[in-house]
């Protein structure tokens, strides 16, 4: 069900966020690290909707920190510490999974995030069904601008790898997938990105 999938997505992303935090905590100047709050599945046998999710209520200004598409430019992403650290988290997960997985829709109050999504390059990556179109990954690679937190964690610039992929030669494409193989994996019907109803927050 959608509700179970939602729990699985958020709690998977939460595990990545914990690993990210553990790595960032070793860096003195990194400071506070964004956290994805847990989401719990509850069963309600007597109700017509047998499953529901429960999570901590976030009080304060709710901000979307990550790009949904090229048209949306959210300045709070670039100008706030939480926004920059969310972009670094996306870059970190992307690098850790060799470009196979991206945590999307990073949004919440301050450093506490919820309603996240996951896009995977191939269906069933590590047995995981993402709930966002993998075009999000292409887009992230094209739009992400590294910041000081990416540098602190020693993440490689995506600009360089993106250009290398475009003019990939058989000699230089060590760990990079060839741009042709990436294009062949486009599904016939790309799923629409999820939409959130902002009034819930």
UniProtKB/TrEMBL annotation:
It catalyses: L-threonyl-[protein] + ATP = O-phospho-L-threonyl-[protein] + ADP + H(+); L-seryl-[protein] + ATP = O-phospho-L-seryl-[protein] + ADP + H(+). This is Alpha-protein kinase 2. Residues 189-201 have a biased composition (Basic and acidic residues). Its EC number is 2.7.11.1. SUPFAM superfamilies: Protein kinase-like (PK-like). Keywords: Cell membrane, Disulfide bond, Immunoglobulin domain, Kinase, Membrane, Repeat, Serine/threonine-protein kinase, Transferase. Protein kinase that recognizes phosphorylation sites in which the surrounding peptides have an alpha-helical conformation. Regulates cardiac development and cardiomyocyte differentiation by negatively regulating Wnt/beta-catenin signaling. Residues 1-158 form the Alpha-type protein kinase domain. The gene is Alpk2. It is found in: Basolateral cell membrane. SMART domains: Alpha_kinase (SM00811). Residues 161-201 are annotated as: Disordered. Its main location: membrane. The keyword Glycoprotein does not apply. One of its GO terms (cellular component) is basolateral plasma membrane. InterPro entries: a-kinase_dom, Kinase-like_dom_sf.
């Amino acid at each position: 069900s959608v509700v179970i999938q939602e729990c699985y997505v958020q709690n998977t992303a939460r595990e990545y966020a914990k690993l990210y935090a553990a790595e960032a905590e070793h860096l003195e100047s990194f400071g506070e690290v964004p956290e994805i709050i847990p989401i719990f599945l509850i069963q309600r046998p007597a109700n017509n909707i047998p499953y529901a999710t429960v999570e901590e209520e976030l009080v304060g200004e709710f901000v979307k920190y990550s790009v949904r598409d090229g048209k949306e430019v959210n300045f709070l992403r670039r100008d706030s510490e939480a926004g920059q650290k969310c972009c670094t988290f996306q870059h970190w997960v992307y690098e850790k999974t060799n470009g196979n997985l991206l945590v999307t829709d990073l949004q919440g109050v301050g450093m506490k995030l919820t309603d996240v999504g996951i896009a995977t390059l191939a269906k069933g990556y590590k047995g995981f069904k993402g709930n966002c179109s993998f075009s999000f990954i292409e887009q992230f690679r094209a739009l992400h601008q590294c910041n000081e937190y990416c540098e602190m964690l020693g993440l490689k610039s995506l600009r360089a790898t993106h250009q290398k992929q475009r003019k990939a030669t058989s000699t230089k494409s060590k760990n990079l997938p060839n741009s042709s193989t990436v294009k062949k994996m486009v599904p016939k019907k790309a799923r629409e990105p999820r939409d959130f109803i902002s009034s819930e927050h």
